[in-house]
């Protein structure tokens, strides 16, 4: 009660108090007047609200606060740790939890008041797009924790600055201006941004740069991001792409080989898309092209040294100085006529010497060769004697074709083995039925043409022609046990002794009972035609039962057909004939 209010009250009558007791003896009008005066001295206080309180008492454990209510409230001293110099008369915000607890005490909380007030301020900052001060407390996964109004807010790493930040720790313990960009009351989560403040400052600068941008303009920028295909450069509020091929005249596999993050560089504007705001930048264009500085001494026929910077299917590129490259085609890597994979000869990083084959300074193209640094094997004087007709050699199969195979006898010396020169007895349709690539094969030289670099080889010529012997073994009129291998519309293929093949027309497959022999049957067949040059034997089963007057000839044939002279095919076999056939059979079986 104030002194003014006290002066307005009537003089207290102690006699009345003594006679009738304390608080009695007042008229209704006097009592109502006193209650009205008392109520006017108190503030209207509602629960669950934040009000201002005045410090009226301080102890080690509690702080006594007067909020203008009929009683004062106590707040734990621990809730004032942020105010170490708290003193009597200070005003602070408190939260009214309960006007009167079971003990009749007013219950207040400064902690809850701070939280409620903070969220109100945060919401206001979001609604009115205000800039507020924050304090970076610590770093966390993906960003920073910033204290705003005693509430921990999350500052994502992408919202710290317009350029990527790689070290978040440099911001810990420092003040930072931020804007509230998102509030999630369900999770008590606040997201803030510092980047939006920078972007706003850069907007005018960005607009000015874009308005004045033109091709050929040289600008200074800072490398803000690096990728496999190039780097992004901050030009002062707007980004441009410096592609990896425009960094250096020489080849590089990654920008980090010549550039660093946060490095200041000068670049030239190569292209600009006003609609998409894309800027293409170049760095090597600020330097003279290396081809312009290529030494005049380098001419066709010159020898150059360099490093292999790329290997393709068709050849390899040799860099003789940064920005100056020459192509070594695979055909110029070896004297071998068989083209191979360039990676068998060279790999990236190899330092090699080559000879200039062609040079065009205007088109900036150069072709090189490696094989020219070694002697052409076809020009060696001893070649004619070494590979004379009839000489025997061993080589490696390098390639298979429909008509034969190419055999490498030595580096640069290849020869062709025609499919017809692989076997005397087998009918080979494709070389792959006989041999595989990389296999070794023995051959004999059939023909040598040094001028045209041609070498004809044969494999079957390593052995004598068995058809010289077959001419007597399978003489016309002799009978042999044959197996039918297959039939078509006109002819049947037969398997004769010693693994060779013969043929019979379909009508000659008729049997004595009127039926025809089928595939898989083994029957006696009589030789009706023998051609040594065409390696063809024609036979007939029908003649074995139609010509019953030749029993002696059939008996001789079934006894493995003894060797007979062309003039007397039906005479008896001799011991020498049988030995010759046995040796021939063993030789053929061993080769197959």
SSE topology:
Elements: H1 3-8, H2 14-20, H3 28-40, E1 50-58, E2 62-66, E3 73-76, E4 91-98, E5 106-109, H4 110-127, E6 131-140, E7 143-148, E8 151-156, E9 175-184, E10 189-193, H5 195-212, E11 218-226, E12 230-234, E13 239-243, E14 264-273, E15 278-282, E16 303-311, E17 315-321, E18 324-329, E19 351-360, E20 365-369, H6 383-386, E21 392-400, E22 404-410, E23 413-418, E24 440-449, E25 454-458, H7 467-473, E26 479-487, E27 491-495, E28 501-505, E29 522-531, E30 536-540, H8 542-546, H9 551-558, H10 575-591
Parallel strand pairs: 3-5, 13-15, 18-20, 23-25
Antiparallel strand pairs: 1-2, 1-4, 2-3, 4-5, 6-7, 6-9, 7-8, 9-10, 11-12, 11-14, 12-13, 14-15, 16-17, 16-19, 17-18, 19-20, 21-22, 21-24, 22-23, 24-25, 26-27, 26-29, 27-28, 29-30
Question: How is this structure best described in words?
Answer:
The protein is α+β, with helices and mostly antiparallel strands and 592 residues long. Helices cover 17% and strands 35% of the residues. The chain contains ten helices and 30 strands. The chain has a five-stranded mixed barrel with strand order 1-2-3-5-4. The longest helix has 18 residues. The radius of gyration is 54 Å and the shape is elongated. The termini are far apart.
What is the compact description of this entry?
This protein has 592 residues and is an alpha+beta fold. It is built from 10 helices and 30 strands.
């Amino acid at each position: 009660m104030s002194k003014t209010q006290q002066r307005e009250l009537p003089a207290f009558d102690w006699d009345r108090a003594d006679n009738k007791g304390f608080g009695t003896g007042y008229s209704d009008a006097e009592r109502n007047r006193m209650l009205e005066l008392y109520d006017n001295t108190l503030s209207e206080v509602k629960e669950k609200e934040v009000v201002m309180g005045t410090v009226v008492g301080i102890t080690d454990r509690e702080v006594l606060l007067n909020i203008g209510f009929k009683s004062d409230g106590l707040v734990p001293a621990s809730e004032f740790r942020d105010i170490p110099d708290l003193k009597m008369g200070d005003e602070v915000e408190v939260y009214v939890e309960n006007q009167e607890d079971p003990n009749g005490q007013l219950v207040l909380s400064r902690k809850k008041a701070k939280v409620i007030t903070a969220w109100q301020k945060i919401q206001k900052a979001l609604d009115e797009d205000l800039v507020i001060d924050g304090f970076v407390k610590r770093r966390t996964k993906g960003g920073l924790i910033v204290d705003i109004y005693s509430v921990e807010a999350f500052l994502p790493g992408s919202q710290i600055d317009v350029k990527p930040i790689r070290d978040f720790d440099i911001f810990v313990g420092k003040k930072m201006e931020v804007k509230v960009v998102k509030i999630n009351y369900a999770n008590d989560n606040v997201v803030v941004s510092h980047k939006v403040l920078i972007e706003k400052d850069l907007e005018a600068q960005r607009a000015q740069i874009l308005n004045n941008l033109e091709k050929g303009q040289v600008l200074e920028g800072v490398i803000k991001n690096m990728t496999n295909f190039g780097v992004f450069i901050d030009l002062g509020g707007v980004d441009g792409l410096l592609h990896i091929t425009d960094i250096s005249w020489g080849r590089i596999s990654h920008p980090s080989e010549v550039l660093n993050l946060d490095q200041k560089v000068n670049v030239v504007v190569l292209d600009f898309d006003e609609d998409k705001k894309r800027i293409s930048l170049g760095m090597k264009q600020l330097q003279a092209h290396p081809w312009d500085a290529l030494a005049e001494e380098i001419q066709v026929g010159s020898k150059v040294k360099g490093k292999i910077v790329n290997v393709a299917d068709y050849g390899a590129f040799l860099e003789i100085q940064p920005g100056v490259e020459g192509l070594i085609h695979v055909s110029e890597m070896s004297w071998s006529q068989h083209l191979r994979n360039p990676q068998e000869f060279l790999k990236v990083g190899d330092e090699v010497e080559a000879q200039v084959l062609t040079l065009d300074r205007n088109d900036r193209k150069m072709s090189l060769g490696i094989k020219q640094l070694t002697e052409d094997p076809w020009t060696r004087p001893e070649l004619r004697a070494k590979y004379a007709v009839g000489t025997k050699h061993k080589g490696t199969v390098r390639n298979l074709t429909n008509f034969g195979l190419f055999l490498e006898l030595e580096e640069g010396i290849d020869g062709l083995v025609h499919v017809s020169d692989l076997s005397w007895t087998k009918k080979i349709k494709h070389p792959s039925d006989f041999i595989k690539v990389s296999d070794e094969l023995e051959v004999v030289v059939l023909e040598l043409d040094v001028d045209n670099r041609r070498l004809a080889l044969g494999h079957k010529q390593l052995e004598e022609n068995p058809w010289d012997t077959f001419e007597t073994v399978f003489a016309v009129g002799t009978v042999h046990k044959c197996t039918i291998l297959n039939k078509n519309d006109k002819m049947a293929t037969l398997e004769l002794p010693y693994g060779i093949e013969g043929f019979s027309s379909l009508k000659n497959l008729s049997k004595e009972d009127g039926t025809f022999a089928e595939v898989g049957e083994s029957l006696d067949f009589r030789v009706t035609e023998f051609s040594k040059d065409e390696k063809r034997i024609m036979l007939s089963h029908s003649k074995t039962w139609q010509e019953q007057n030749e029993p002696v000839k059939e008996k001789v044939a079934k006894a493995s057909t003894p060797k007979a002279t062309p003039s007397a095919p039906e005479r008896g076999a001799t011991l020498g004939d049988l030995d010759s056939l046995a040796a021939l059979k063993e030789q053929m079986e061993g080769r197959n």
